[in-house]
Amino acid sequence: MSDTDRTFTGLLLYDGDCQFCSAASTAVRQLEAVGVVPWDDPAAQAFLEAQFGSTPFALFFVDGDAETIWAGRAAARELCDRAGMPVLVQDVVDENYERIADAIRSVSGLEREIDPYHDAYPLTEDAAALFDEVASRAETTRPPME
Q1: End-to-end CA distance of the chain, in Å?
Q2: Which of 33, 41, 73, 143 has the fewest CB neighbours in a 10 Å radius?
């Protein structure tokens, strides 16, 4: 599949076991050309392994066209920006990402620790080669791009 034939150009990899994260992913599905895939999906796991050499547990946003993957705090900020959130909201999310994540884990009863990945990273060739496979697993409530 060529880049111009992609259904999704952006992918959110999120914790599908967390009720809050799942609810938040519903809002992200409203963004045009963005699909969501649970972190533990086998295609997402292979993608993360290709990108990082391991499968870090964090929030990830991948833009196939920009060949960039944002992680943790940077992913949350990028998603806020793309959703058109005011800068104040983006700053609050950015500055309080760990506290928000800890509170959600505590309320949800989840015990898995979030790995400290909080930057934008260039997409590796190996991960980019798997983008379309992960995208084929994505869900959205918007119609695919034409």
Answers
A1: 14
A2: 143
Residue 116: name the closest of 102, 131, 134, 130 by CA. Answer: 102
Domain residue limits, the chain: 12-135
Given pLDDT bands bounded at 50, 70 and 90, which one contains residue 130? Answer: very high
- Give per-residue pLDDT as tens, 1-24: 344 455 778 898 987 766 556 556
H helix runs in the chain, sequence order? 19-28, 42-52, 72-82, 87-108, 125-135
Beta bridge partners of 37: 13
Q: Report d(CA 71, CA 38) in Å as an integer.
A: 14
Which is nearest to 13 in space by CA: 77, 56, 67?
A: 56
CA distances from 56 to 26, 47, 88, 108, 109 (A): 23, 11, 29, 20, 20
